[in-house]
Amino acid sequence: MTDESLLAAITPRVLLGGFLVVLVLAVGAAAVTSTATLAPYNSDWDGTSTARSTIAAQSSAPPVVVEATAYDRFAGNGTLVVIQAPRDAYTAADIQRVRAFVARGGTVLIAEDRRTATNQLLAQLGVSARLDGRPLRDPQQYYRSPALPVITDTANNSTLRGVDEFTLNRGTVLRSTDGTAIANTSAFAYLDRNGNEQLDSGERFRSYPVASSEQVGSGRVVVVSDSSVFINQMLERPGNQALLTRLLDSHDRVVLDYSHAPGTPPVVVLWLWLHRTVWAQAVLGGFACLAAVMWTHRGVQQRLSTVAAHVVGRFMRSSSMESVVLTSRERVQFLTERHPEWDTERVERIAESMERLNESAALDTDE
């Protein structure tokens, strides 16, 4: 094929079709992705899509939940629910669901570096640990910047067993851990009280707790003082992937709770709803079967096409008739104005002929 014939084959219709395909793919991609920080469908550096994919690869159920009622369906023992930076306060009913899950032997890991609603959540769950909220820096033991301290003091406990280190990203520290701390900074860390990234008078070096594990009833609540410890970029930092792997290996199921955080695309929310709603799956399956029959059965296609053509044809004819039907006087007036050279007898004769034609067409339509 020559260049000229190739160019001739690329018609405007082909170009339009290609544009529509690209447009549909772009809209589809936008509908199932997110740009919100910490969002599980955000594949940028500040999203958690890698953690979500890692968890999904080891689970038969969707790893993300977007409603607190999901806690009612979780098995207690062997299930870990990760809550990252909740932005909306949990209602009394939601708290009751989480507490019941922990009472059944479930584990909740809360990762956050702000006080706000998270400290309230910790109190409502009966946990002693609280988030300090002030920025943590460690000029002695860090990754690229003192704002990214590397934590190597991990106590000998089941939660962090085998995790020699992990890295925080502009996190904070825990207060009131009451002996439940399972990870601490080096002795050269400090709290940057005024946020100037400098050690000032009144800011002292010391070791701070950054993770705790506390038994509540038959379950456990783990607190990590950094909401971004599992974001895509931080999983590439020293020890963080090992931390995620340890959590996966030590539990039968891991779930990401985004019921009180933004960033889940509407299409994903709909898919999650379909996944847990049996009657909706049945209805969708019925429509799929009907569509398959219509697509593959030529007789059904022909009958549907015939019916559709008949309905459309009757509608068009009816609309056309309604648009041209005139009274006898209107026909006479129309013909007189259109043909002033005709005499009265001729105008009336033609008007009567037009009326008979309209009546005949109406009878054909009724039949």
Question: What this model shows, in words?
Answer:
The two termini are about 55 Å apart. About 45% of the residues lie in helices and about 15% in strands. It has two domains: about 35-275, Rossmann fold, CATH 3.40.50; about 285-365. The strands form four sheets. Strands 1-15-2-3-14-13-11-8 form an eight-stranded mixed beta sheet. It has a three-stranded antiparallel beta sheet with strand order 6-7-9. A hairpin with a 1-residue loop joins strand 6 and strand 7. The protein is elongated. It has helices at about 5-10, 10-30, 50-55, 90-105, 115-125, 240-250, 265-275, 280-295, 300-325, 330-340, 345-365, and strands spanning about 65, 80-85, 105-110, 130, 135, 140-145, 145-150, 155, 165, 175, 180-185, 190, 210-215, 220-225, 255. It is α/β, with parallel strands linked by helices and about 375 residues long. Mean pLDDT is about 80; it is low at about 20-30. This is DUF4350 domain-containing protein. It holds the Pfam family DUF4350.
